[in-house]
Input
Amino acid sequence: MKIGIGLPSGLPDVSGKLILDWARQADAGPFSTLGVIDRIVYPNYEPMVTMAAAAAVTSRIRFMSVILIATLRNAGVLAKEAASIDALSGGRLTLGLAVGRRRDDFLAAPAEMKGRGKHFEDQLALMRRVWSGEPLSEGVGPVGPPPIQPGGPPVYIGGTAPEALERAGRLADGLIAGGGRGAPGIAEHYGIVQQAWKAAGKTGKPGLSAIKYFGLGPNALERGAPAIRRYYSNAGMDPEAAIRSVAFTPEEVRTVMKEYAAVGMDELIMLPAIPDLDQISRLADLVG
Output
């Protein structure tokens, strides 16, 4: 199982310099991917811009949006942005996408929340057409630049609803799972994805990635809890339950990695709850 690390771009009051320093240090290893979260009504950095900036100061590590709310964006522009990042980074982009569920984000975009599942599928079809280099319609296109990765960057779909899981198997390259349900719940969801994958006549198997928050070092719980509480306070979730799901000790991080590896996880991306550079080396020591 590969281990990635999130950028602190989703934490409040983080400087751009810290994000770029973090990317440079993570690029030195042993991490496979830099993960970037998405919101609109929140003081996070925009994920596509963040990944482009991080690509400019790194040479090895991959990038993954975990997740990008595609339905808040214009599909043609998003496809061009993704192709540009893929080309600029030398083919290091994976797109984790979902339909979104926070109403305030849709009001701020603005975007239509009703019917977003069907809209999302239409977006995926258009994006793949852009990445193929074909004209979008008579007299329109093609849209460039061409991505480095053939057919465009891999697309993983996030979500827990049956429709989202079926969509991940039918239309995407894999599932990007949240950490709230734990390894057994993710394994159950992945089974639904696999069934949809086979029903669609696809060969091989879907990829499986997940995210999990962590914080390490002295007083990690006290230092990391406020950011988690703030992020989940308006998500229709219990923020205290979200805090309890964070791995705040080396033992908890090791247990999470062991449990996720046991269910066949391809990659686990550990998102920081504490925006300090020492989190990179502390996690790296546990990864080995």
